[in-house]
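Hey team,

Filing this mostly as a record. A colleague (T.K.) asked me to run one chain through the structure pipeline before their review meeting, and I want the input and output archived in the tracker in case anyone asks later how it was produced. No errors, nothing strange. Just documentation.

Input sequence:
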Amino acid sequence: EVHLVESGGASVHAGGSLKLSCVASAGSLFRNQCIGWFRQAPGKEHEGIAAIYTGSNSTYYADSVKDRFVISQEELKRTVYLQMDRLNPEDTAMYYCRYCRTPGNIILPNSPDRGPGTQVTVSS
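Output structure:
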């Protein structure tokens, strides 16, 4: 069963913007959770890039996206967003949202569950 479902991926040119959405399905956890965005490009490791604690609204970012991406939440819609600006070809990957944890400010998945993801492709 998929608990977090991603959407919003698309193909854009370098310098462009996209906003991804992650919806927590009915019956799944949303309040007081760490929900993060992860990405994986072909041949590269699964990378945690942004996380938010829905109870405190605390946020965490990987250095690779800091100052370009912003994670936010809308509790009534049970949705976490990822606003991505100044995209570059290195941001091309499949993007996933997952429950997470942040030991030492590193964003790690907290569950083996993973949704279908949403593809982001940035052309130069």
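Quick notes for T.K.: The chain has a mean pLDDT of 95. The first strand starts at residue 4 and ends at 7.
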